[in-house]
Amino acid sequence: MRCDYSCRSDDHVLSRRGFLGGLAGLGLASGFGSFVNPSAAAAMAKGQKQMLVIWLAGGSSQLETWDPKPKTETGGPFRAIDTSVPGIQICELLPQTARHMHRMALVRGVNTHENDHGKGQYLMHTGRAQAPGAEFPHLGSLAARFLAKGTEPLPGYIHITPGGGGVGGKEAAYLGPKYGALYLGNGAPPANTARAGSTTPASDASRHDLRRHMNDRFANRRRTAETEAYTTTYEQALQLMERREVFDVTREPAREQERYGSHDFGRHCLLARRLLESDATFVQVTHSNYDTHNENFAFHLEQLGEFDQGFSTLLDDLAQRGRLDSTLVVVMSEFGRTPTINYLYGRDHWGTAWSIALAGCGIKGGTVVGKTNAKGTEVVDRQVGAGHLFHTYLKAVGLDPKDDYEVDGRSVQIADPTASPITELLA
Amino acid sequence: MRDQHRAAWLLCVIAALFAGRSAAADTPLHERIDRAIEAGRDGRLAAPATDGEFVRRVHLDLTGMIPTATEARAFLDDPSPYKREKLIDRLLDSPEFARRMQVVFDVMLMERRPATHVPATEWEGFLLDAFSENRPLDQVAREILSADGADPAHRGPARFALDREGDPNLMTRDVGRLFLGRDMQCAQCHDHVLYDDYKQAHYYGLFAFFNRSYLVQDAKGIATLGEKAEGDVTFKSVFKKKITNTTGPRVLYAEPVAEPAVAKGQEYWVAPAEKVRAVPRYSRRAQLAKSVVSAKVPEFNRNLANRLWAIMMGRGIVHPLDLHTAENPPSHPELLEMLARELAAMGFDGRKFLRELALTRTYARSSEPPPGLSPEDGSPARFAVAVLKPLSPEQFSWSVMQATGIVAATRAAVERTLFTVDPKLTQLMQLDDKRRRFGRRLVESAVYDGLKGNSGPFIAQFGRAAGQSQDAQDASVHQALFLSNGQPVLSWLDGLAGRLATIADASAMVDELYLSVLTRRPMPDEREEAIKYLAAKPSAKAQAVHELAWALLTSTEFRFNH
Known about the structure:
The complex is a heterodimer of chains A (427) and B (562).
Chain A: H1 38-46, E1 50-57, E2 80-82, E3 89-91, H2 95-98, E4 104-110, H3 117-126, H4 139-146, E5 157-161, E6 166-167, E7 182-185, H5 201-222, H6 225-242, H7 254-260, H8 264-277, E8 282-288, H9 296-320, E9 327-332, E10 336-337, E11 349-350, E12 354-360, E13 367-369, E14 371-372, E15 379-381, H10 386-396, E16 404-407, E17 410-413
Parallel strand pairs in A: 1-8, 1-9, 4-13, 5-7, 5-8
Antiparallel strand pairs in A: 2-3, 4-12, 6-7, 9-12, 10-11, 14-15, 16-17
Helix pairs in contact in A: 3-10, 7-8, 8-9
Chain B: H1 2-26, H2 29-38, H3 51-63, H4 69-77, H5 83-92, H6 95-110, H7 120-132, H8 137-146, H9 159-162, H10 168-180, H11 200-210, E1 213-217, E2 223-227, E3 233-235, E4 245-247, E5 268-270, E6 279-280, H12 285-292, H13 298-313, H14 333-345, H15 350-358, E7 389-390, H16 393-403, H17 406-420, H18 423-429, H19 433-451, H20 455-462, H21 477-485, H22 487-500, H23 506-518, H24 524-535, H25 541-553, H26 556-559, E8 560-561
Antiparallel strand pairs in B: 1-2, 3-4, 5-6, 7-8
């Protein structure tokens, strides 16, 4: 279904509500209500860093979120409210999120010079402008490659989308498709993780034994990195099949599901928590759709209501379970929205002066970096671009953005060499 | 006296010349290749591949899939000492060879980009025709590089440029990589920091062939390349911003293209306008094919020879294939020069060239390192041990279909339909070699068209992202899940297991299974184990065969061309 308020580019042909309410009637199936996942402590002990990206697709409005300008001609109808940090105010559409401001940092001086959906997505995912003939890996792919140990049962880059699922690859660019995204369409588990009806567990076990036996014979003298990688994938597949229930949020008690909200985004946030608790390295949740060319305020009211509940609950849980210290959380879009309100009460694409929010691992809570002018039409202090943000994310999780990566004998710096991290944000 | 001396001297010269000539002429290329590879190895080389390994390898490399059990058995049981050479010649002459080359060159040149402006079938048809008639490869390259899509009957080769949107930077990069073996992307903004011979001037010299061209769509949406008559290329290094350089079209170290002066007002045959393809009197793009495919550009021949070598040997003499530079020298420099020279000398006859490679001892070596071989001696760049080649997504899907009998069943169905329509027609088709060949091509096309859709999920699982080099492959958990639980493979295996389960004699059945999937007979202990496995599940024979077959199909031995 198309969002009738969007700019009608192909990016928005996603169903928001296809699965709505499918969970309401389900009882609590399991004892998964007991919380602390023993591996959380283990992960922290290892110093394992994780990442969570909330992607507000279509371009959320900075004015209705992180950088309100109430009582100005560009400000719109909503008020600014106090947060848990004195002196920092955000839009009143985010009352629950406001409670977390001491854990969060805001970057209010983002200028990406980009007003195109596709190019903005590329830019914010890779920290580099799109250029023909050159492809760079997504943040998620870099995390999968450099943060993951490779022994985790879950794929390194998992993206929960409102729409289609499947296996990506392109996101990883030169890192290779292994580090590409696994898309969980509307939160559904990945394909082929259920044993085919015709295969009994016993038969599955015995065919795998035969396979291992075959491989041992072949590998006796011809063991290479490639043959090892191939045989390992089958063991990973078995592990993933065994943990398939991690994708099933209905195993959570009803009250947990209620806390996150009876909407897709809430369910996807709960799924994100389950994945992070199972040591997934990088989880992205897309909330769609913020491309509000008309009725910007009505749609932000509705969308941000979902966002505020799901996101703040997730932050609560990550913090309470001790995960937030080792999990970098980023809330971003492809761009912000124009301060000017158009004649349809909409706001249009705007990469010139907008905001993103961060929390968790390596981030100094209660920080605001950058400033826009009174009407929000330009950045007046500490202007940063996507490259700076990208450097900051990497630095926060302990990766060196200036590291070179060898691609077939060629060196590529993992983050744009012309940018640098926003050190004020880093704890 | 003096005359006598002169005569003797002349005789010597003639004799020397003759001897020199005959040494080259008498020693076939494949032998000279082997000498170059084996020089200084002192026998630190892998043993020859077994017949089973060889027949599987050569089928995969020349036809894109493993042989059937019947073909494998016939080859293994053939006592002729010339059977390998006969097999190579038979395969090179088959329609499957042209198809394999179509797929290889499609993947190499288009890198799985979506077909936007030219239907994939037109481009594939162009490649298939070229390889079916064994068109010289330099000519094929010229056709691709000069195509602008304007001739509606020959839009196939234009896919290279049009489905890159005619983008000058992308064209520069990919013509550099794929036709000259140099990825000069990093020289776009400055001379390459790591490779002294990758100059910014090289990048923009190539760029100047493309910068006046642009993609234009007519009223019906048909895309072609138009070209303006003006537009000069200037560039600055990001390190030396004060110096502005200019360049005309030029390929690497060759002389710049001499450009004619065109009188003012006479610049165009067709002037630029909206939805109109502009045609200048002097076209820079039309110079491209002449300038790249030229005796003055040794990089072209080297790149092509290296890429053909890699198809057979699993890696380039220069590797990666698009990193020809002094900093990444060829493993065997003289061999590469010889191959480049010989390829040109044989008129860029791709089939003949691949035949020589297939006849080498180097190609026919075992992939198993001999005991005690040092890692250095066994390094893939030595070509002393055959390189393990992961099957491409297409080779993999077609081999799975071959192993499970899907290809043979489809072929039988096609032949039934084609040749039982009219017995007279069938007779006619057998009249002479030309007709028989035509018939074979017809059957191959029908089988290919009928089954190629099955490769889709394999390409999605095993291929790399569109626009990325497809030379390397990665293993991912999703591939294993697809092969473990995915429907196409499991149902094909059911078919195979059902058929094999009807063979009453367990030993004969295991033979057939191994020949079908692994192109060899089982070792005695493998046979014994399989028979025991089946005996343990007497009530579910087909199920047990399915499990055995699945294990063979998902083994590393099957996954690689070894």
